Amino acid sequence: MNKPESGIRSFPRNFWTAVSMEFFERGAYYGVLSVLSVYLVLSPGEGGLGFSREAAGAIMGTIPPLLYFLPLIAGALADRYGFRNILMIAFSFMITGYFLTGFMTSYGLVFASLVVMAIGAGFFKPVISGTIAHSTTEKNSTLGFGIFYWSINLGAFLFPLLLVPVLKKESYSYVFWMAAAAGVVLLLINIFLYREPIRAREKVPFSKIFEDIALVFRDWKFILMILIYSGFWIMYFQMYGTVLWYVNEYMDMTPVNNAVNGLISWMTQKPSAWEFDVEHVTVLNAGVIILLQLFVSRIVSRFKALPTIITGIGLGTAGMAILACSSHAWVFIAGCIVFTLGEMTAHPKFNSFVGLIAPSGKKAIYMGYSFFCSVIGSFVGGFVGAPLYSHFVDKMGRPDLLWLIFSCVGILSMAGLIWFNRYVIKKGSSQS
To answer: Are 107 and 120 in contact (CB under 8 A)?
Structure first.
């Protein structure tokens, strides 16, 4: 009996192994990220480390950019030395980094431990994406990558929802050790289940990485577009920094708690004591994506890339502005949902937009560097968000001004893309 060329049954075993790996890795990462910024600033008496906002912002502005940048190097290493070998290194770093972070209390050692974790996660990203690419065909790749991305959000939904609340009640250290345990599971999967994809190993010189970087950075149009679009990602990374501080210190989520507990009690016929906490911001984001991404993708597929991206940034900007309107619990939930709708609208179309400005024959290289918007967004979002929160929320007691500032960043990003399209894209097309 021939294997079907499309559909669920068309994928080889290694595809499902890679999807399982992605689920555990992203679950561990987002489980930690859902509470990390709060853990860093909570007083030791509350179970935290007691670092300053600015010190925490430096960590949040360093770890994600490192994680997003390292795949450039890791991808070349994987092509040289094999996917499985690089995964062994990645998981070893992840286990070590998460495990040590749960023990360390001094700023330097916590920072160093998280850097070790980020190295592991950064090495993991291109290898697992490459495995999915090697495990799919032209006929089933759309479904395959859809399942792959769905597993990311499933991990980001379930780990903070089910594990983090229970573990952090005992100790925040348990959250990091849970992530280390997930790393052990990944290591075992790699040893016993993962198979090296059938491919030709490429002896690509490391100088090629720097040649590609030089090629991309000489293209001022591409760099300008990345800088403009980074405005959205500056807003996005507040969801793992200043927004979590705001929930922990400023928000009264009682109306949401009452509604959820009423629903749970009605369904189970038992009393419920569920409480919305900082980790549920990540749960909310991932849950909305799981429920609505297919629906949103179908709608935006009918429209051109640039207007769709601008609309997505507009929704993200509106989400931030909604947070500024009121500190009521349901207003906060609405703001987060609208922001996530913006993320779902803008992000899928971004690669299409990169393809529009990439030179012929260089699209693959440009697509590989399109993630620089996340590097810039997380870097600026971490280092700038923390002192802004200290000034406008801690000192002035005006969180509304903070969210309006980030909304202005979104407005500038939208205006920049409109200008870019009119005076760079269209003008360049008319002259060619």
So the answer is: no
